TrEMBL record:
It comes from Paraburkholderia hospita. This is phosphoglycolate phosphatase. InterPro entries: HAD-like_hydrolase_sf (IPR050155), HAD-like_sf (IPR036412), HAD-SF_hydro_IA (IPR006439), HAD_2 (IPR041492), HAD_sf (IPR023214), PGP-like_dom2 (IPR023198), PGPase_prok (IPR037512). SUPFAM superfamilies: HAD-like (SSF56784). It holds the Pfam family HAD_2. It catalyses: 2-phosphoglycolate + H2O = glycolate + phosphate. Pathway: Organic acid metabolism; glycolate biosynthesis; glycolate from 2-phosphoglycolate: step 1/1.
Length: 225
């Protein structure tokens, strides 16, 4: 069945945003006198929102922290991280090859588009706006937009309900196992791209329904079928 709605993950799917996330993380750590964390480690933590990312970073830089101490440190650090990320968001991120062309093709074909990200809504919209991609999307769902976030089905189900689209007419696209699980849990087709982050694992291990080399390739598949 032809797809009427496609929801997209953001980081690692539409935009390579890891450099600016790492910049904000290390600027935050520096303000507390903590040495920087390498890019590979930070990339492995992308996908669950900025709060969970910083929780994992703090656990790495000080493995001796108890859970209570880690929670307290996180509460202290997050306002600083939010300020640093607000300064960097959208300054270094770049759309992956084929993203803009693919989104335009889908729009022109009448396919409705939305972003479902675990990044906080404020940062997701700022990133899309500053990267020039925001006009392609009718809706942006962040990790704090609803009571539950990916891989819970609530975010995708919310978009389906708002657009009055059935599950069989929708697909979710992402770069990680979280996105594949989200699609499965929501009852929509699970598509993936082979680049991105995915916690350092090949996306094929998550067994998506189909892997597209680019968003443009995905768009051509949708339009021609």
């Amino acid at each position: 069945m032809q797809k009427r709605l496609i929801t997209f993950d953001l980081d690692g799917t539409l935009l390579d945003s890891a450099p600016e996330i790492a910049s904000a993380v290390n600027a935050t750590l520096a303000s507390y006198g903590i040495p920087p964390v390498d890019m590979k480690t930070i990339v492995g933590f992308i996908g669950q929102g900025t709060r969970e990312l910083m929780r994992k970073v703090l656990a790495v830089v000080d493995p001796s922290l108890s859970q209570d101490a880690l929670d307290a440190r996180l509460r202290d650090v997050m306002p600083t991280f939010s300020r640093e990320y607000e300064l960097s968001v959208g300054t270094m991120a770049r759309a992956y090859p084929g993203v803009e062309r693919g989104l335009t093709t889908l729009q022109q074909a009448g396919v409705r588009l939305a972003v479902v990200s675990n990044k906080e809504h404020q940062f997701a919209t700022h990133l899309l706006s500053r990267s020039g991609l925001l006009p392609h999307f009718e809706m942006v769902i962040g990790g704090d937009s609803l009571p539950r976030k990916k891989p819970h089905p609530m975010p995708i189900h919310h978009v389906l309900e708002q657009f009055t689209v059935s599950r069989s007419e929708a697909a979710h696209v992402g770069d990680s196992r979280t996105d594949i699980q989200s699609a499965r849990n929501a009852g929509v087709i699970a598509w993936a791209v082979p680049y991105g982050y995915n916690y350092g694992e090949p996306i094929a291990q998550a067994q998506p329904d189909r892997i597209f080399t680019s968003i443009n390739d995905l768009a051509e598949h949708v339009v021609l079928n």
